[in-house]
Structure formats: structure tokens, C-alpha cells
User: What shape does this take?
Amino acid sequence: MLGVVLAGGKGKRFGDDKLFFRIDGKPLVQHAVERLQSASFIDEVVLVASPDNTRKLRGLGPEVIVDELTIGPIGGVYTALSLGDAFVAAGDMPMIVPEFVDYLIREFGRRGKIVCVPRWSNGYLEPLHAAYSEKFRDFLEKQIKRGDYSLNGAISSADVHYVDIEELPEGWRESFFNVNQKSDLRKLTG
Ligand SMILES: Nc1nc2c(ncn2[C@@H]2O[C@H](COP(=O)(O)OP(=O)(O)OP(=O)(O)O)[C@@H](O)[C@H]2O)c(=O)[nH]1
Ligand SMILES: [Mg+2]
Assistant: This one.
């Protein structure tokens, strides 16, 4: 399956160079790319970037697709699905667990639903760590045209397979960790 790393955010909470902030000698976004590349069921990884980020990201290696919408993650997923089915992750997730990605891709294939998304017991979803069918793109398009940019809303209205996080190995939860502000970096080195 195609792996997609979203790299089109504003990084308002962190500062605009969030995805290029170096951790262990590598830009933050490179960690996400490499973690996805390590998953057995990921064939190729591409970056879906805002027009602003495109030029800088091209130096990293993976193909860069431009997200012309820049309306938030929903636009990134919409752009990604023009390439086919995809596992989508955020570029600010440096601790993605490849084994967990493989698990979700396997469940996506087995269940045959248009989205396979992790869910916490309080109902909170992890849509930037999920597998999507290209068929989900029509849902997104309709919703975006209505001016509704909620990715969670689109998922909730579709025929989805939810993976209950609390039933999985506890060690997989760090996969969702994402860097939103400078203080989050402390959790990485600790
Ligand atoms: N392609 C694309 N990716 C996006 C867009 N908005 C957010 N992202 C990405 O989605 C992921 C999650 O973003 P967040 O951490 O919620 O937000 P952010 O915009 O990076 O940062 P804040 O401005 O602080 O909220 C990151 O990898 C972003 O680069 C968008 O409009 N297009
Ligand atoms: Mg984030």
C-alpha cells in the first residue's frame, strides 16, 4: 500500500519550521517517512505538501505531491487519495510503530471498509494514522464542497472499521505521539 506523510500544516504552535526541526540529526518529517518505509506492507512513501513547503521537502527523497487546497488535514487526505488507497500519517509523528501500521493495513484489507481508523475508548479517533480507500475521496469531496472541513465528521458518516486501541499492545500507543509544541520535544529525549 502507498504510504502518505502529510506535510502541509502551519505549525502555528511550534513555529513554522516544525517539520524541519532536527531530531537525532534528521528533520522531524524524515523520521515519519522512515518509520513508514519500515512497514512491510508499505511499498512507497510520498509526501503531500502545501505549496509553501514543497520546495524544501523535495530535498528529502520521497516524491512530493502538492496539496493545493491547504484547508487542513482533510485536504491532505483528499489529495493523497487521488493516488489510490493509502495509509496516511502526520509528518510530526516521529515514533510511528511499523508493526502497528502493518496491523492496520491488514485489518483494512480483511474488513473491506473504506476507512480503517484507530479509536480510543472515549470515542476519540486517530485519523492521521489510518488506512483509506480511494473510494473515500467522493465522501471528502462532497463534504469539502459544503465547506465542512472536519475529517472526523467525514469518517463518522462513512462505513468505517474502527480498531479499538486499548485492545492492542500498549507499546503501540507511542505511534500516535506527535510534536505540536516545543515542550513535546522533552517527551522524545526522556
Ligand atoms: N497536506 C496538508 N497537510 C496538513 C494540512 N494541515 C495540516 N497538515 C499536516 O497534518 C499534520 C497534523 O497537523 P497538526 O499538528 O494538527 O497541525 P499543524 O498545522 O502542523 O500545526 P498547528 O498550526 O500548530 O496546528 C501535520 O503533519 C501537518 O503538516 C494541510 O492543509 N495540508
Ligand atoms: Mg500534530
Q: What stands out?
A: The radius of gyration is 15 Å. Residues 2-181 form a domain with the Spore Coat Polysaccharide Biosynthesis Protein SpsA; Chain A fold (CATH 3.90.550.10).
